[in-house]
Amino acid sequence: STKSKKAIKLYEDSEHYMARRQYIEVINILNLALERDIKFVEAHLRIAFCSKLLNNIEGQKRNLEDVLKYTETPERYVNVYFSLGESYYLTQEYDKALMVLNDFLQYQGINQRLIPEAEWLVRNVYFAKDAIMKPLDIEPEMLPEIINSGPLQYFPVLTGDEEQIYFTKRQGAHPRYDENIYMSKKDDQGNWIPPY
């Protein structure tokens, strides 16, 4: 999508870094290519891909928006609508997510594997919007000391029947302390047993 020979050369150079999974270098090189031609769609697309791999959702989102802004053939980049919708969902921009995900689902010949994922995202967007409009009145409750027994405990997961709990625990913040997964369950009287 560019006629700039320098931008094309930089794009080609970025392929070597892609092969070595040096994504920050890829982004740096492609930003130089975009200085030569801001409308270089393939460079934006590759930066978006690398940004996602680096968990930089804002960078991914910005470059996906630019792909759609600068392309003359949006039908070539149908999957960008899906990825952009996912990015908007992750950044809680729910109205934008609905717009691009619905656009994605309207296209003919889309990747069939992505349809259930796009439909799942749409359902989750509606759920999130509803939860924001009608928040639940929740009062957190401390678990007994037998469960809250360490300095660092996090990522608790309670089973649906509320009879078992799984959580991650460390004895301290220093790197020498490993994370371990613990489980506790309720005894016959409904009391939590010591985690193991």
Task: Note the main attributes of this structure.
three-stranded antiparallel beta sheet; 3 strands; mainly alpha; 52% helix; 196 residues
Task: Characterise this structure.
The protein is 52% helix and 10% strand. The radius of gyration is 23 Å and the shape is elongated. It has seven helices and three strands. The relative contact order is 0.07. A hairpin with a 5-residue loop joins β1 (152-158) and β2. The model has no long low-confidence stretch (mean pLDDT 94). The longest helix is centred in the middle third of the chain and has 20 residues, at 114-133. With 196 residues, it is mainly alpha-helical. It has helices at 5-19, 23-36, 41-53, 57-70, 78-90, 94-106, 114-133, and strands at residues 152-158, 164-170, 180-185. Strands 1-2-3 form a three-stranded antiparallel beta sheet, with no helix packed on it.
List the SSEs and their pairings.
Blueprint: H1 5-19, H2 23-36, H3 41-53, H4 57-70, H5 78-90, H6 94-106, H7 114-133, E1 152-158, E2 164-170, E3 180-185
Antiparallel strand pairs: 1-2, 2-3
In short:
With 196 residues, the protein is mainly alpha-helical.
Largest sheet: 3 strands, antiparallel
Distance between the termini: 58 Å
N-to-C SSE string, H for helix and E for strand: HHHHHHHEEE
Q: Helical segment tally?
A: 7
State Rg.
23 Å
Described by its quaternary structure, the protein is single chain
What portion of the residues fall into strands of 2 or more residues?
A: 5-15%
Mean pLDDT: 94
**Structural class determined from secondary elements:** mainly alpha
